[in-house]
Write a structure and sequence with these properties.
The chain is α+β, with helices and mostly antiparallel strands and 301 residues long. The protein contains five helices and 17 strands. The strands form four sheets. An eight-stranded mixed sheet has the order 1-2-9-8-7-4-5-10, with helices on one face. Strands 14-13-16-17 form a four-stranded antiparallel sheet, with no helix packed on it. Strands 11-12-15 form a three-stranded antiparallel sheet. Helix 1 crosses helix 5. The longest helix is centred in the middle third of the chain and has 12 residues. It is globular. It starts with a helix and ends with a strand.
């Protein structure tokens, strides 16, 4: 599910049921070891554990790791590698089958997210942030945390004790697409432009709204987008910003002449009358022909 969503977002990568032999080929590695009883243990002395640790510590890696037992139960009980210190995670306890809803945290890239969970739901580890780690998700009905991100300076990680690919999509920003795109943005990875085709050098092949950067932001954020060469000329292009209540904040009044090119708009946190808007969650709504996408923007003051 995650590979399909990332591909649809415009990211490129490989998917497999074993670890790639050379992690140095990749900007980021996403590892899913499952939930009991359909889970996999990364043995502490295994080549897999050594490769993942080396990727973070010596290759300035970017890693996502999910699993119901990988944080608390596996290291002492199953001989699993303890990834907690690298991920800024303090494993608290071996949980039960009560996960959901999965709720994001204010002031960071999961703000406003709220998911129901349809994945396997057994012994979900309870985890807290420690060191440079910071909380990104908690269980909305119970008093425990289930997602932590970490910016260690030389590398970045995201760790969860649930299956991201089996969260249930809701209204934006509560979609797996928005979450995965936000994680990639946290990692500093943006979608690439398709390779040149039939003499169309330098022109994007696909219409899309790319990630906002920086996000969250205080002064300004760059909204990047592209209009693919396959889009019909003079298609209607719209870029608008709405607040959390659905009120229009800013209309950039884009002209159709931008078709078939890459472009960006800088939003400085002001409304249509150039007045500063308050801190909070805003939604960037982009339309170009039949393409529509909404991205969440978090404004800090």
């Amino acid at each position: 599910n995650m590979h399909t969503i990332l591909t649809n977002l415009g990211y490129s990568g490989d998917y497999g049921i074993s670890l790639a032999s050379d992690l140095g080929l990749y900007q980021a590695v996403l590892v899913c070891v499952g939930i009991y009883s359909d889970n996999y243990v990364i043995d502490a002395s295994s080549a897999e554990a050594l490769a993942l640790v080396d990727f973070l510590e010596n290759q300035d890696g970017l890693m996502y790791l999910e699993g119901g037992d990988v944080w608390y139960y596996d290291p002492p009980s199953q001989g699993g590698y303890d990834f907690g210190p690298l991920f800024g995670i303090d494993a608290i306890s071996d949980g039960t089958d009560d996960l959901g809803p999965v709720v994001g945290e204010s002031g960071i890239f999961t703000e406003g997210m709220n998911f129901n969970y349809s994945g396997e739901n057994n012994y979900i580890d309870h985890i807290n942030p420690t060191g440079s780690g910071f909380l990104i998700f908690h269980d909305g009905n119970n008093n425990y945390n289930c997602g932590v991100a970490n910016d260690a300076g030389t590398y970045k990680t995201v760790g969860t004790s649930f299956e991201l690919g089996l969260l249930t999509d809701g209204s934006p920003p509560s979609t797996r697409e928005a979450l995965l795109d936000s994680i990639m943005n946290f990692f500093g990875i943006t979608t690439g432009i398709a390779e040149d085709d039939k003499g169309l050098a330098g022109l994007p092949m696909k219409t899309m709204l790319n990630t906002l950067y920086p996000n969250p932001f205080r002064r300004m954020t760059e909204i990047r987008f592209q209009i693919g060469v396959g889009s019909r000329q003079k298609s209607v292009v719209s870029l608008k910003i709405y607040d959390a209540c659905g009120r229009l904040v800013k209309d950039f009044n884009l002209q159709s002449e931008i078709c078939n090119m890459q472009s960006s708009i800088v939003w400085d946190g002001t409304d249509q009358n150039d007045r500063k808007v308050p801190a909070g969650v805003y939604f960037v709504d982009f339309k170009a022909g039949d393409y529509k996408k909404t991205e969440k923007a978090i404004l800090l003051r």
